[in-house]
Specification:
This protein has nine helices and 13 strands. It is of the alpha/beta class. The chain has a single domain, classed as Ribokinase (UDP-N-acetylmuramoyl-L-alanine:D-glutamate ligase, 3-Layer(aba) Sandwich), CATH 3.40.1190.20. Strand 8, helix 4 and strand 9 form a beta-alpha-beta unit. Helix 1 packs across helix 7 and helix 8 crosses helix 9. This is Sugar kinase. Pfam families: PfkB. It comes from Streptomyces roseochromogenus subsp. oscitans DS 12.976.
């Protein structure tokens, strides 16, 4: 186990792994015996927890990441990524191996992710004392929905440290997501699978602890429910051509949390999120790059169309 447990602004729980990126000519990909991939097939560290941690660190927040990692080449890539960006990492042994996925990326930046669920075991757990120690040294904890983070929620809520989570493309019905949705103080999700985003956002707030719930909607902006009031957050034009949507939701969440921990009101936090999410769409999936604080603040201050 590697560890660096100094005080942190944000503890990120779970979501460490590697992705293999394949740019395909179309999504859905028509059946064929084979495809020639001229752009190459690349494997790099970076799944949802890694991207959240990278985004927070790029904005100047002291960030620590806790997850299970295998003693394998994929785990080595994750460890190297954290060293390169100065992000504290507590890596607990995972005999089943480091989480991995394959991302098929279409010409318009959309992606299809294939997750390897064999890299987990039903009995996987984070040691409660480790959770208490790292959460107690943090101002905020962001919990990804990867296994086994759900089993950590009871310990985390007992610490009293504010929690956030990202439900990704939850349909509002899948029971797996509910413990995360109702335990967090700030909830992010995508509106992609929601027929009525406002109804889902209000149900999360009514049944859980969240005073702030945000549903991102791509080019249509986002829905922000804060203290019972629903507002629409306009999208921000990307600063360059859109090449990949991978990591846009993580970038939004990281920038929103930066604003929240800086004392900004929810509307300003959402503006930060929109700027960071638009920036992320201009970064190829084969790279791990996040917007910095100076550029975020400069672009967020620009007049709105």
């Amino acid at each position: 186990m590697t560890s660096q447990s100094d005080a942190a602004d944000v503890l990120v729980l779970g979501g460490a792994g590697v992705d293999t990126i394949i740019q395909v000519p179309a999504l859905p990909l028509p059946y064929a015996d084979s495809y020639m991939i001229d752009t190459g097939i690349r494997t790099r560290a970076g799944q949802t927890g890694d991207f959240i941690a990278l985004g927070l660190a790029a904005l100047g927040l002291r960030t620590h990441h806790l997850d299970l990692l295998g003693d394998d080449p994929e785990g080595d890539l994750v460890r190297a990524l954290h060293r390169e960006h100065g992000i504290g990492l507590t890596a607990l042994p995972q005999p089943a191996g480091t989480k991995r996925a394959v991302n098929l990326v279409g010409p318009d930046g959309r992606r299809l992710s294939l997750y390897d669920t064999s890299r987990a075991r039903p009995g996987d757990r984070f040691p409660p004392e480790t959770l208490r120690t790292l959460a107690g040294a943090s101002r905020h904890v962001h919990v990804t929905i990867t296994q086994p983070c759900a089993e950590a929620l009871t310990v985390l809520t007992a610490t009293g440290v504010p929690l956030s989570t990202d439900l990704h493309d939850w349909d509002g019905e899948n029971p797996y997501h509910e413990p995360f949705a109702y335990a967090a103080d700030v909830v992010f999700l995508s509106a992609a699978a929601l027929t009525d985003p406002e109804r889902t956002l209000r149900r999360i707030a009514e049944r859980g602890r969240a005073r702030t719930v945000v549903a991102t909607a791509g080019a249509e902006g986002a829905y922000l429910l804060a203290d019972g009031e629903l507002t629409r957050v306009p999208a921000v034009p990307p600063p360059a051509p859109v090449v990949d949507s991978n990591g846009a939701g993580d970038a939004f969440a990281a920038a929103f949390l930066y604003g929240r921990l800086s004392g900004e009101p929810p509307e300003s936090c959402a503006r930060y999120g929109a700027v960071a999410g638009a920036y992320a769409c201009t970064v190829p999936a084969s790279r791990t790059e996040s917007i910095g604080r100076a550029e975020l603040l400069e672009r967020a201050a620009e007049p709105r169309p």
